[in-house]
Amino acid sequence: MVMPPVAKPALTGRFAKTPQPTVSVPVESPSMASFGPSEQDDHELVAQADLLESQVSRKQICLPVGWTHTLPPADQLWISKVLFKYSSHNQPEMDFTRVDRMWWYPPQPPFAVAGVPGTERYFGHPFFLWMPRKLWRVKLTCPHPDCVKEELTSAGLHQKIRQVVDVKTSYFMASEYLSCRKCKRKVISWSFDIVSQLDISHRLQFPCILTSKLACDMAVVRLQRQRGLGNSSSQMQKQLEEQHSENWMLKVVQYLTDCQSFRKAVTAGLVMPMSFEKPPAMLPVPKHRWLMQVYAQDVLQRLDEIKASITSRFGRVLKMDSTKKVARKLAGHSAGTATWVTNVGNEHGQVIMTVLTASEGFGLASMVGGIIKRYKDASVPPPELLYVDRDCCGGTYLKKIFEEWKDMEIRLDIWHFMRRISVGCTTDSHQLYSTFMADVGPKWLMTKASVCVG
């Protein structure tokens, strides 16, 4: 005999439970089963949960806060996975057990796409880690003058990273903080005072020149060194923009092609409907004025080398000439400060020295003294011949300042000699000037007894 259930007394006060909502579960009837099994709904829910879990895991970025302001979203995920971990205080820190090189590259797109295409595999940028004190264990000293060779110690990561403009794309560079125990000041390891302390082998591994906000790779810097009509800063900026745009478009085409294959699978009913991330915008290329700033910094860093290259040019035959045309082109603060420009060149067309003077002949003694000293310091024999535009005969001022080179002959340049013959033509723009000079020129260039007349 089944006894009826006994009703329990209701609880009052703090022992009373909150009434739970009742859920009515309908009994499945044969007619409802024909609309589709419940297992299909379970599979869809599991697939949606897996997709949501993958999206959430992709958003978990373990990076310093300052890095996230500069790094594009496509680079934040793979860099956080490769180089960082959470500390015991749940703060991101670099895992130096994984750091075995300076250059890091983003994951590449797979040959056969098996999952939802992620932008980090298509639009990631290379990453350069510059930490000479931490990685090479080199001794670096404080660059401030009040600290006498005080050794620097590592003080963690610099909270900002720098975008570096390369030929085809851009990459990002991170650095470390160095702290001085004496003055308590911090220095970034990519500063020029720190890089210049390294030996030549390690110094050459620093890949760029820094500016206020960006940096320029040395490959771009070297392309600017040969200045000319076809290699201006504006032309260089256009070439860089074309290279960056071409590289970015190739990545967009590959990414959209892989997304299209999934779109076809959705249309065929093979996979669930899904949404894809939009391709990120291309990082802008700086203007031509920024390239000129980089070029100026490169010249300043190579100033000793450039001076040595210029002052190592000599010649057996020299030519000295003065002109006003170059002085008239001076602009800015230098405008009007000089009237004459005097150049000294050799037989190869190379300029040995250039000076700007307020009047013709003034200050040439210092220039000549510098040329004579250059020949002496290099143990090079003095030149045999000097061509000038005036003062070639008699006891002139030029012979006095060149008195140390007693065996050198001073002659009048053939061009200026012919100009003295053309006094019948009033100006260079005379109608018969070009015809007259064309006929006179070959007649003076003659050889007599192996001596060039003129």
Automatic annotation (TrEMBL):
InterPro entries: DUF6729 (IPR046616). Residues 67-300 form the DUF6729 domain. The gene is LOC109076187. This is Uncharacterized protein LOC109076187. Pfam families: DUF6729. It comes from the Eukaryota.
